[in-house]
Amino acid sequence: MRIFALTGAGVSAESGLGTFRDAGGIWARFDPMKLATPEAFARDPDLVHAFYDARRRNLLAAEPNAAHVALARLEAGLAARGGELFLCTQNIDDLHERAGSTRVAHMHGELLKARCLACGQTSRWREDMGVTASCPSCGETGRLRPHVVWFGEIPLDLDAIFAALAEADLFVAIGTSGSVYPAAGFVAEARALGIRTCEINLEPSDNAALFDERRYGRASEAVPAFVEAVLAAR
Ligand code: BJW
C-alpha cells in the first residue's frame, strides 16, 4: 500500500509549536503580510528575521510528539510490507526527522536552513540569522534569508509531490486547516484520481466534505490510532 500523508501545523501543536489560524495562533497575533511575503522581507528584513529567529529558538527547544513518532513507525511498517509512505509536510520544523522519518518533502521549506540571495545556496542554520550574517558558501554578508516559502512564492518539490500523489492508494491530511494552496487542493486532486481520502484533525477542516474518512481528535492520539489500524490491516 502506498500512502501519501500531508501534515500541517496541527501535528506539531502538542510539541509547543503554534498553529497559524486557530484562536491565539500565529496569524492571530502577527500580520502574515508583514512577515511572510518576499515584499515584507524587502521592506523590513530586521522584523522578519526577528520573527523567524524567535521561532527557530522555540523549535530548538521542542521535541517530537506521539504523532511524529507514529508517522515514522508508519514509514517503517509500510516499507516492511512492501509499501511506501510519502510524507509531505507544510511544516518548516524538523520534528518528523527527529522522530525517525527518513524521507520528508518540506513543501514550505525548513526553518533550520538559510538561503543566500547572492549565490542561491542553502546551508544548515541553527543560530539567529539577522541582517549581518554571512553566507557559509560565498561569504556575502547580509544576503541570507530563512529557507521558507512565503505567500506568492512557489512551494518546493512540487513535481515529486504530485508524482507521489498520483501513485498513492490513500491520501491522508493531518493537522491542517486546508486553507493554503496548493496543499489545500491535494484532496480534490486525489479524489479526481480515484484515491481514497482521510482527514485527521482536531476539528473539521475547510475541506472536510471532500474526505471519505474523518477522524477527529488530538494528533498525539488520533495519528497513532490511525497508524495501528493501517498496519494491523495489512
Ligand atoms: C490540531 C491540533 C492538534 C490544532 N491535533 N489537529 C488558489 C490556488 C493556488 C494558490 C492560491 C489560491 N488562492 C490563493 C493562493 C495563494 C496562497 C494561498 O493559498 N493563500 C490562501 C491564504 C488563500 N498560496 C501561496 O501563495 C503559495 N504559493 C503559491 O500558490 O504559488 C503559486 C503556485 C503554486 C503551485 C504551482 C505554481 C505556482 C505559498 C504558500 C506559502 C505558505 N506559507 C506559510 C508560511 C511558511 C513559513 C512559516 O511557517 O512562517 O506556510 S503560511 C502558513 O500556512 C504556513 C503553513 O504551512 C500553511 C498552512 O497552515 P496549516 O499547517 O494548515 O496550519 P493552520 O493553523 O491553518 O491549521 C492547523 C490545523 O490543525 C487546524 O485545522 C487545527 O484545528 C488543527 N489542530 N491543534 C490535531 N493538537
Characterization of this structure:
This protein is an alpha/beta fold and 234 residues long. It folds into two domains: 1-17 and 64-108 and 155-234, Rossmann fold (3-Layer(aba) Sandwich), CATH 3.40.50; 18-61 and 110-148, 2-Layer Sandwich (SIR2/SIRT2 'Small Domain'). The chain is built from nine helices and nine strands. It has a six-stranded parallel beta sheet, with helices on both faces. Helix 5 (66-80) packs parallel to helix 9 (219-233). The chain is globular, with a radius of gyration of 18 Å. Ligand BJW binds at residues 8-10, 13-14, 19-22, 25, 36, 90, 92, 108, 148-155, 158, 175-177, 179-182, 201-203, 205, 218-219.
